[in-house]
Design a protein that fits this description.
It catalyses: UDP-N-acetyl-alpha-D-glucosamine + H2O = aldehydo-N-acetyl-D-mannosamine + UDP + H(+); an N-acyl-D-mannosamine + ATP = an N-acyl-D-mannosamine 6-phosphate + ADP + H(+). By secondary structure, the protein is of the alpha/beta class. The chain has 26 helices and 26 strands. A 7-stranded parallel sheet has the order 3-2-1-4-5-6-7, sandwiched between helices. Strands 10-9-8-11-12-13 form a 6-stranded parallel sheet, with helices on one face. The two termini are 34 Å apart. Mean pLDDT is 88; it is low at 1-5 and 406-414.
């Protein structure tokens, strides 16, 4: 709430004036249960913090007002919201008819409330039967509806209710790109759909920094440790109540056999919930020493409990949505969440005839830690929603318009927007500089940050985190949605684990370093790490000459010599992640010593360091400078001086460059005879000086079957950063859950 109060009010005022809308928007937020309040509360805080733009009315109904479910309306009062109206709408019962009667009772009571409040817009969340009554009442009374979390897919009757509310709603706030596409496919107006992310993520992504041990002790006991307990939350499936009760029994049996401290929350108000409570009591869960059974846990405390649990089990949407923000393992039971997008932390048990399958799932998942997932939000949902609310023009006709024909004919209108906003954070860990950039799907470097690379591990990691946090914050301002972080670094890398096994001599203290975990934990983003040569190949595959080419090789010619091999459209890493160390192909048995300790490597001839070494030798013998060249006394001799001297007619410098080019050409020749690629791409600052020499070697010495290979110079300005971005963009945009 403090955050929203500190938002720039002047900037928001300018937006309002520009839209010609100085009317205070009267917003009614109706909340039915503890779950929807966790999503609505951040929006309510945001609205309350800007009284110059909004008037907030809160209506409470449903299970909030039932003692059996914890009287959760109290947490709304504790959050200092004035509750305008309390409506008792739940009809007690244990079958489907009770839900129908509850909807009917709500429809009877709501018109009087809405007539008194006369809201400009009503905010409705989710897919519960109570929400359907709210949306129906508002639509029939000509009140605009903003629906939160439309377009998602799950199991049971909830799908039908959610999509029914979508058709009644005038505006839509969705959490994922897939949900947005579903809404468009359902013929909703593109201009009235906001892809904001889940509002609860605004709170979730800062939750881990708080004190949590006291909360764990209160709910689970003094002797419980982090990652050594389970949170269980299971609801009845209203389309198959009998089977869901059986699944709940098996779950409790498995949890008792697993013998870990477990916090069990009571189920939602649904047909079958009373039978589930009877199962708990029949098995003695409320008195079992390993179990704590509770009706309700405040959301702030619930966040801490699931964030530090060894596992969460059940069929709650919280497990497949919010818990992914912490990387906590989840076991999703049954069909209630079928179709939901999930992170890799979720293991599905679709059906179980015995407790053994669930017990085995517990053994697989308990105690693991997965990368944090941001499928459902990036922590900036509420500012987007408030801006969206301010843009609503009450003078527009109330009647909804549907976008026919189907979206297939309109895809081209949306692709440009998608490409512009989806982006990656790219990190290039070089020997001298550390660079971080925001890179768009089109390969445009939107913003770049450069700092000198610190010498120690601690300082280096601290600087990476600082620069990434700064870039991620700036991404919001430049309308970029960060999908993940890609890191390009020298040395041998295990990309599966995100670990630098050992680096080059240019980057000291950088061996057996886990880069993925600390950066993922700090930014709540997935992180990919790979060798800089491999990243250069990925950059070419996505943005450069390698686009659409099945087999090609990229060589980097810079301070060192590296590269990457793409075979059948996939990058080759090798059995020990040492593939494509192209700089260490030996082209002479008695050549100069290489930094790797061997002799005659390509890198010992053709790298920037090798050319600098030869330039120093010539300079020491006064054989480097020729007419037209000059050097200051304190100036360091470099490869650039050797190249300049060769261009100005220095025969010795020219001979050194020709030897270097020939060495590189022989290395390429070995690659052609081994991998038989159709394209060789030379990248880096020295590429243009070597390309003709490489072609000459191929023409003279290659087998006739490979002489037709194309050798080109890369046209990418920054392959390291673009390659790091490709790690993210290639993976996240083709991933299917």
């Amino acid at each position: 709430e403090v955050y929203f109060k500190n938002l720039s009010k002047q900037k928001q005022k300018e937006v309002m004036e520009k839209n010609g809308n100085n009317h205070k928007l009267r917003v009614c937020v109706a909340t039915c249960n503890r779950a929807d309040y966790s999503k609505l509360a951040p929006i309510m805080f945001g609205i309350k913090a800007e009284p110059q733009f909004f008037e907030l009315d809160v209506v409470v109904l449903g299970s909030h007002l039932i003692d059996d479910y914890g009287n959760t309306y109290r947490m709304i009062e504790q959050d200092d919201f004035d509750i305008h109206t309390r409506l008792h709408t739940i009809v007690r019962g244990e079958d489907e008819a009770a839900m129908v009667e509850s909807v009917g009772l709500a429809l009877v009571k709501l018109p009087d409330v809405l007539n008194r409040l006369k809201p400009d817009i009503m905010i409705v969340h989710g897919d519960r039967f109570d929400a359907l009554a709210l949306a129906t009442s508002a639509a029939l009374m000509n009140i605009r509806i903003l629906h939160i979390e439309g377009g998602e897919v799950s199991g049971t009757i909830d799908d039908s209710i959610r999509h029914a509310i979508t058709k009644l709603a005038h505006y839509h706030v969705c959490c994922t790109r897939s949900a947005e596409q579903h809404l468009i496919a359902m013929c909703e107006d593109h201009d009235r759909i906001l892809l904001a992310g889940c509002p609860s993520y605004d709170k979730l992504l800062s939750a881990k920094n708080k004190d949590y041990m006291s909360i764990i002790r209160v709910w689970l006991g003094e002797d419980v440790k982090t990652r050594d307990y389970i949170v269980a939350l299971q609801h009845p499936v209203t389309t198959d109540i009998k089977h869901s009760i059986k699944m709940f029994e098996l779950t409790l049996d498995a949890l008792m056999s697993f013998n870990k401290r477990t916090l069990v929350l009571f189920p939602n108000v649904d047909a079958g919930d009373k039978e589930m409570v009877r199962v708990m009591r029949k098995k003695g869960i409320e008195h079992h020493p390993n179990f704590r059974a509770v009706k309700h846990v405040p959301f702030d405390q619930f966040i801490q409990l699931v964030a530090h649990a060894g596992c969460m089990i059940g069929n709650s949407s919280c497990g497949v949505r919010e818990v992914g923000a912490f990387g906590t393992p989840v076991i999703n039971l049954g069909t209630r969440q079928t179709g939901r997008e999930t992170g890799e932390n979720v293991l599905h048990v679709r059906d179980a005839d015995t407790q053994d399958k669930i017990l085995h799932a517990l053994q697989l998942q308990f105690g693991k830690q997965y990368p944090c997932s941001k499928i459902y939000g990036d922590g900036n949902a509420v500012p987007r929603i408030l801006k969206f609310l301010k843009s609503i023009d009450l003078k527009e006709p109330l009647q909804k318009k549907f976008c026919f024909p189907p979206v297939k004919d309109n895809i081209s209108q949306d692709i440009d927007h998608i490409l512009e906003t989806q982006s990656a954070l790219a990190v290039d860990l070089g020997g001298t500089n550390l660079r971080v950039a925001i890179v768009s799907m089109k390969g445009e470097i939107v913003k770049k940050y450069t700092q000198l690379n610190p010498k120690t591990y601690e300082d280096r990691l601290e600087l990476i985190l600082k620069m990434c946090v700064e870039a991620a914050s700036e991404a919001v301002n430049v309308n970029c949605r960060i999908l993940g972080v890609g890191i390009s670094t020298g040395g041998r890398v295990n990309p599966r684990e995100g670990i630098v096994l050992h680096s080059t001599k240019l980057i000291q203290e950088w061996s057996s370093v886990d880069l993925r975990t600390p950066i993922s934990d700090a930014l709540h983003l997935p992180v990919w790490v790979d060798n800089d040569g491999n990243c250069a190949a990925l950059a070419e595959r996505k943005f450069g000459h390698g686009k659409g080419i099945e087999n090609f090789v990229t060589l980097i010619t810079g301070t060192g010599i590296g590269g990457g091999i793409v075979h059948q459209h996939e990058l080759i890493h090798g059995s020990s992640f040492c593939a494509a160390e192209l700089g260490h192909i030996v082209v002479s048995l008695d050549g100069p010593e290489c930094l790797c300790g061997s002799q005659g490597c390509i890198e010992a001839y053709a790298s920037g360091i090798a050319l600098q070494r030869e330039a120093k030798k010539l300079h020491d013998e006064d054989l480097l400078l020729v007419e037209g060249m000059s050097m200051k006394e304190e100036e360091v001799v470099s490869a650039a001086h050797l190249i300049q001297a060769a261009k100005l007619g220095n025969t010795k410098a020219d001979s050194i460059l020709r030897t270097a080019g020939t060495a590189l050409g022989l290395g390429v020749l070995n690659i052609l005879h081994t991998m038989n690629p159709s394209l060789v791409i030379l990248s880096g600052v020295l590429a243009s000086h070597y390309v003709n020499a490489v072609k000459d070697v191929i023409n003279r010495q290659a087998l006739s079957s490979v002489k037709t290979v194309d050798v080109v110079v890369s046209n990418l300005a920054d392959p390291a950063l673009l390659g790091a971005a490709s790690l993210v963009l290639d993976y996240t945009t083709r991933r299917i859950y």
